[in-house]
Amino acid sequence: MKIATIVGARPQFIKAAVVARAFRAIYDLDEVMIHTGQHYDENMSGAFFRELEIEPPRHNLRIGSGTHGLQTGRMLEAIEAVLLEEVPDGVVVYGDTNSTLAGALAAAKLRLPVFHVEAGLRSFDPRQPEEINRVLADRVSSLLFAPSAHAVENLKCEGITDGVHLCGDVMYDAALFYGTRADQCSRVLERLELSRTDYVLATIHRPETTENVERLRTAMGALAELNRDIRVVLPLHPRTRKSLQEAGLIDDVTQRLCLTEPLGYLDMIMLEKHARLIATDSGGVQREAFFHRVPCVTLRETTEWVELVEMRWNRLAPLTSVADVAAMLRDALTTTLSSAGDPYGDGRAGEQIARILARTDCGQAALVSM
């Protein structure tokens, strides 16, 4: 079987590594990895492949950044050309990025079956580009690998039941597998002179935050207020750095927070595992906080990971004012949380996905998906 895997952003590299490792263990897979180049910075891309021990992509499309329409259109054209050249039996897409949507559409137009890992997630906020990408990718997929019971129910409510599999979250597999490696290999705590549970880890990168000056100012102001009480570490995404520079905020933020360059995956895991609190606008970091049993505040109005809010391991903090967000962050620092269940499976999602793909009749799947 030949499978084309479409990736473009850091979280997708991690998910692809989990599934590919599981697939190699049980099946003779010819995997063609296609990297769209959505994340192209060395620390955002190249370093990840080395740390995750992933073979370099067979095709790097080097699309780069751009508006949503421009970026997605270029990806769609370039992915289609590669699929026509490689002629895979099916196409795996991950998550909810523009790479996800472009890969799913290119495959569907060529009547190739689409296999969506992380299907069924919904924030129910149509203003989010990611929400559009999720819904459309699910609509053209023939196999939908849902990470949680909530995701399965979302699909059912939309009339999608065929090909749906509750497999758990491959990011949980990654947290377990690479968490041990991080303890062994990462020295980021020593480099940054951090003590365990004596700092807050923050990540800010989503366009709805970085491209709105007032929201960006509010997020940074709240983190700076919190830094009065406990050190706040902020690995700076290239998009965020650019927005801070354009808004004239970079000097102030540099003075008031502990900024670092984008970090490798093992260093990020290490920081996540040992933080007292995580503040983020990222979907992936929300779950990673929970996997390591660290409380999280999500700097957004909505989340696609509703289980974590219901379990109180995550709380939403809309970026309305510095005072409100800072108060919520401080409250989260002192809140004691109860033990948690396992809404995202048992850490063997990759194995389940690989076994389902291995016994799939791709020809029949393609007919079902159209």
Descriptive overview:
The protein contains 18 helices and 13 strands. It has 370 residues and is of the alpha/beta class. The chain folds into two domains: 2-169 and 346-369, Rossmann fold, CATH 3.40.50; 178-334, Glycogen Phosphorylase B (Rossmann fold, 3-Layer(aba) Sandwich), CATH 3.40.50.2000. Strands 3-2-1-4-5-6-7 form a seven-stranded parallel β-sheet, sandwiched between helices. A six-stranded parallel β-sheet has the order 10-9-8-11-12-13, sandwiched between helices. Helix 1 (10-26) packs across helix 7, helix 4 packs parallel to helix 5 and helix 7 crosses helix 13 (265-274).
What class, by secondary structure content? Answer: alpha/beta
Proportion of beta-strand residues: 5-15%
What is the overall silhouette?
globular
Distance between the ends: 21 Å
Overall tally of domains:
2
Q: What is the fold named in CATH at topology level of the largest domain? A: Rossmann fold
Strand segment count:
13
CATH H-level name of the largest domain... which superfamily? Glycogen Phosphorylase B
**Main sheet strand line-up:** 3-2-1-4-5-6-7
Rg over CA atoms, rounded to whole Å, is: 20 Å
**Main sheet summary:** 7 strands, parallel
Low-confidence stretches at least 5 residues in length (pLDDT < 50)? none
Mean pLDDT: 92
The top-level CATH class of the largest domain is Alpha Beta
* Estimated helix fraction: 40-55%
Q: What is the level-2 CATH architecture name of the largest domain?
A: 3-Layer(aba) Sandwich
Task: Give me the number of helical elements.
Answer: 18
